[in-house]
Design brief:
This protein is mainly alpha-helical and about 280 residues long. The chain has one domain. The chain is about 55% helix and about 0% strand. A hairpin with a 4-residue loop joins strand 1 and strand 2. Helix 1 packs parallel to helix 8 and helix 5 runs parallel beside helix 7. Keywords: Membrane, Transmembrane, Transmembrane helix.
Length: about 280
């Protein structure tokens, strides 16, 4: 058993109590579950569901490495930005991995936080970049579009397959189902997309490609927000100018509120308001 302090139930306070760490019955002995984010979910859902869903999250890691190395670094930063005459963004302003320094987290908590920072940061970078491309589309010439077209034709088919597997197989089937996470339906994502003025053009082939990718990113960003809000809902330590965080981070606890975060996960499984049922 770890030596973490616990918050007792007080009828006069709104702070939820932290339950006594559960034990999973083994072959004639008890295995203590360390009080951490994983153990908080086990209290709600049981060990099997949490172990399966939590482990399957990491099946998506190859996809995020692929879009980071080939998509963000090579294709966007070193090819598409110069071709479209767009400014190069600093990936370090989006992919922030610093929550491993937060006191009170176990080793696995820190690993989960690093994964969440990497995945959410990569997708947030791509989300913001697509918005920039959509806003710049009226001034991007046909010549610029045609220069990029052969490279996009080679990359997009592989990307589409990887995206489909990541969202529909890994997240919706293997992660969201056992962990009870929400999905964003395609129609709801399309409605959000249609409300964005920069994506109003639905006729040109160029904007159709941009809209297609934006539609997927909206759904993937929602899926990642569901995971992060339940598995590392703590604010980053990095606050330097220029750093960009996803919108759902405003619901996260401060780095010194680990106990309150754990209590919320025990009671609700997530810190997002719409998930607190």
């Amino acid at each position: 058993m770890n030596d973490r302090s616990y918050i007792p139930r007080d009828a006069d306070t709104a702070v939820p109590r932290l339950l006594i760490p559960v034990r999973v019955l083994g072959r004639g002995f008890e295995i203590p579950i360390i009080w951490n984010i994983f153990g908080s979910h086990v209290k709600r859902l049981g060990f099997t569901r949490v172990a399966f869903g939590g482990t399957c999250m990491y099946l998506s890691l190859p996809f995020f490495v692929m879009i980071h190395v080939t998509g963000l670094m090579l294709l966007i930063q070193y090819f598409l930005n110069p071709v479209y005459a767009l400014s190069r963004r600093a990936i370090a302003d989006y992919v922030i991995i610093d929550r491993y320094r937060i006191a009170g987290l176990t080793f696995m908590d820190k690993v989960n936080c690093a994964f969440c920072g990497y995945a959410n940061g990569s997708v947030h970078f791509l989300n913001c970049w697509l918005d920039e491309v959509a806003a710049a589309a009226p001034r991007i010439t046909l010549r610029q579009k045609l220069i990029a077209l052969p490279f996009l034709l080679m990359y997009i088919p592989v990307l589409v397959i990887a995206q489909w597997v990541t969202l529909h197989i890994i997240y919706e089937l293997l992660v969201a189902t056992p962990l009870g996470l929400r999905n964003l339906p395609a129609n709801a994502a399309r409605q959000q997309l249609d409300e964005l003025p920069a994506y109003a053009d639905t006729h040109s082939w160029f904007m159709r490609v941009v809209r297609f990718e934006k539609h997927f990113i909206i759904r993937l960003a929602y899926a990642l927000s569901q995971i992060e809000a339940g598995w590392c809902p703590l604010k980053h330590l990095e606050t330097r100018p220029g750093v960009e965080y996803p919108e759902h981070h405003r619901h996260f606890y401060q780095a010194d509120e680990v106990e309150l975060m754990l209590a919320t996960i025990v009671d609700h499984g997530s810190v997002l308001p719409e998930n607190k049922i």
